Amino acid sequence: MFDLIFRGANLPDGRKGMDIGIRSGRIAAIEKALEAEAGEVIDATGRLLSPAFCDPHFHMDATLSLGLPRMNVSGTLLEGIALWGELRPTLTREALVERALRYCDLAVSQGLLFIRSHVDTSDPRLVTAEALIEVRERVKPYITLQLVAFPQDGYYRAPEGVRALDRALDMGLDIVGGIPHFERTMEDGRRSLEALCRIAAERGLPVDIHCDETDDPLSRHVETLAAETIRHGLQGRVAGSHLTSMHSMDNYYVSKLIPLIAESQMNAIPNPLINIMLQGRHDTFPKRRGLTRVKEMMAAGVNVSLGQDCTMDPWYSMGSADMVEVAHMAVHVAQMGGIDEKRALFDAITVNSAKTMGIEGYGLAVGCNADLVLLQAADVTEAIRLKPVRLAVVKAGRVISRTPPRISQLFLEGRPGTVDGGRDFIPVAG
Ligand code: FE2
Q: CA spacing 20 to 30 A to 54: which of 75, 139, 328, 360?
């Protein structure tokens, strides 16, 4: 007897028509034609069942604040930071909590149940940290929310940057953040990485750095972060977010840098939606698009996961908590249109991100936590193409969101009928 059975599901690894039995919040069986009863049965015939999505890079303190106090006119990262600096002194805990909870509701409906959010610690009031700690507790039954102490205005550059980061970690934020390219000098950036990795080693915490989110081909903070990771014995516990300078770097230099990243076991977190929107803004034509070297890092064995970064905030006026949309953009910008490449990008929003975030019991195997999403798509490549409806979202074996399938009715002369989420148009699946 199971609590829940999905019947006839297709799985991300290509298995088709599988029954998944769930008991006591965990996956207890994965078989063809499972002979058992269940409290609830969901017909998943021909649909993709995936582990719930993970977003390893987000800013939940800024989300849904679009237009406050004004719009970003230039569209640049730097105007976004300046605009956030205007909004920040007016932030209240209540407003931050309300916006974050609304975003989490949206995330659940999209099958996104694991989120790592950076939390700006530049305002010494630390109202952002207070609010997000409250949100972390309130969403705990359905979303795993990790919080990074993030000195947005610079660890050394902000007047209270050093002390505020320490205080935020004392309050209970989970991860040490940084922004070396926003310090006053390259040398200050280097020193900040030294200090932040030391703090992480001393406190036993992971590290997640906004690292070289610039178009500067000569920026060297990625190299420093990898070296400091090794020096402090933090292998596997450090993430380099964005890494956009690598887009513009000299190829010879990168041929040395990527093996160093692999050696340090640094997790790479590109954010394709935001990178393509913000980078290259000082270029005329040709315009650089700023995405780091996804394919090349994957080929070198680096764990690459993809982040959403922003949804409706000073940096980005779009976004919908949809990690499939993030993978969809990565297909284009990283030029990864092959079937295996799309599978690799689906991994980047699921298993790779779970590894980056250190989520235990994640996956689609017997014994894993039953944190799942059923999509209106037949397989991974179709999911990335269609950005499909999340038919059901399950947390610890319990259905926590349902969305009806998208089915269009056609009223065409000679061709009346229905189209199921666009699937009629696929000549070959998988
Ligand atoms: Fe970010």
A: 75
pLDDT tens digits, 372-399: 999 999 999 999 999 999 999 999 999 9
Tokens standing for 242? Answer: 């964005």
Query: How far apart are the CA of 34 and the centre of ligand 1, in A?
Result: 44
Please tell me the distance from the alpha carbon of residue 274 to that of residue 285, in angstroms, as a whole number: 20
The angle formed by the CA atoms of residues 311, 327 and 239, to the nearest 5 degrees, is 75
Domains and CATH numbers, the chain: 2-46+363-424 (2.30.40.10), 53-357 (3.20.20.140)
Residue 199 near residue 164, CB atoms below 8 Å:
no
213 is catalytic: yes
Ligand 1 centroid–CA 59 distance in Å is 6
DSSP secondary structure string for all residues of 409-421: EE--TT--EEEET
Question: What's the maximum distance between 2 C-alpha atoms anywhere in the chain?
Answer: 71
Residue 227 and residue 193: Cα distance in Å, rounded? 10
Catalytic residue among 183, 213, 341, 382: 213
Say how many Å lie between the CA of residue 82 and the centre of ligand 1: 15
Give me ligand 1 centre to Cα 152, in Å: 9
Per-residue pLDDT of 147-196, as tens digits, reads 999 999 999 999 999 999 999 999 999 999 999 999 999 999 999 999 99
Distance (Å) from CA 28 to ligand 1 centroid: 37
Protein residues placing their CB within 5 Å of the ion ligand 1: 309
pTM over 0.90: yes
Beta bridge partners of 74: none
